[in-house]
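Please, structure for the following, as tokens.
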Amino acid sequence: PVINVAPRYGKLKTPSGEIIGFENIELISDRTLEAWLDEFKTIKDAHPDKVLISSIMEKYNKDSWQELVGRIVETGVDMFELNFSCPHGHPEEGMGAAMGQNPEMVKEVTGWVAEVTDLPIWAKMTPDILDIT
């Protein structure tokens, strides 16, 4: 079973305590997509002026990525993080870090997502890539 931690988010600080970013953790989720969609909508309804980032991972399949993004866009999220870094991301299905180690796949999937949304997108890369260029 998957055991999620709480809280999932934390401040990333310098040794002097200055906040310079954020950290998050979400292991392979035991929650349904519908639960996430409901939560995204609830958060955006309660905090319309705050930025909500959806971190997503999917199989190497154009229709799957585009359907996922389309459903999430409807909730009002502000941007997407494409998770190409997770080492737990079903590598047998080419997900997560398995996909992130292939620059052509990263480029292609990012393009698929850009075809269906005008929201900002960034690729969360794995540190296990041999050549980042």
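Strands lie at 9-13, 19-24, 53-56, 79-84, 121-125. The chain has a mean pLDDT of 86.
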